Amino acid sequence: MVLGRVQFAFCGLLVFQTIFHCDGQLVAHKSYDPMSPLPFPTCRADNIDCLRRSLRTFFFLMDGGYFGMQPIDPTIINSVALSLPEQQTSFLLRRVNVTGARWTKLVGRRFDLENGKNGVIFSSDLHLSGQISMEVAGRKEPHNAYITMDIQGAESNITYAGMIHRGIDNEDYIVIGPERIAVRNMRIPSYFLQPNSEDSYIIDDALQQKQSILDHFSNEIMAALMHSIVDNFRMFSAKVPIKHYYKYYEK
Fold it and tell me: What are the UniProt keywords, alphabetically (predicted)?
């Protein structure tokens, strides 16, 4: 995708990084070349409306690979596995193609959580497709099919620790620590299987009888996607001084 002017692209990306602001200590940090001021007002960390206006641009920028970020829409998740010993069955999703992440919505911000952590809540609608296998004890060959799934209104609750580091260039940078991601599905994901075969019928019957399997797949896929997004935040917050996207106080 060819994006518009670089200055406009910079704009959305850096404002969105404000979502992950937190207070901390000032220590030595790697120096980077000075950056020119951005041509738009910066956002406060608690200004949800301001952050929401820049969120969509941020995801398009991430998909464009700006500053070395890894694109996440579409993304490929190699595998998701689930074992059900009581049913003597196991399931495996392979080569899952996931789209729709760029339309993720910011639901809310949370401050001063346990151990001084902060948090954000996102809502996502995703479309995915891949191979699904079902292995049954005592059967040599697994049942195989292709699955297409829609995940609607899945909420990702991300909590994280962080610090502000002072660089040798005398600029402040945000460093994001380890994150914890909890996913909640607002509804059971919908799906269909292909081709119209005996294997598809057997897998469908198992999914209908135990829909928590779909919940598990959805949660694992959402968590993997959000970890990738947070990793991209880390990359940028280590390079871009806070002053270009964060407003410390109202003037």
Answer: Signal
> Can you tell me which residue has the tokens 């909640």?
184
Q: Tell me whether residue 120 is in a domain.
A: yes
Q: What angle do CA 34, 36, 41 make, to 5 degrees?
A: 130
How far apart CA 208 and CA 229 sit, in angstroms, is: 32
Q: Are strands 118-136 and 105-110 parallel, antiparallel or unpaired?
A: antiparallel
**Total structural domains in the chain?**
1
Range(s) of the domain holding residue 160: 25-30+73-238
Extended strands (E) in the chain? 75-84, 89-99, 105-110, 118-136, 143-166, 172-184, 190-194
The CATH number covering residue 182 comes to 3.15.10.30
Q: Which of 31-35, 67-71, 154-158 has the lowest mean pLDDT?
A: 31-35
pTM above 0.85, yes or no: no
Instruction: Give the residue carrying structure tokens 């799934």.
Output: 149
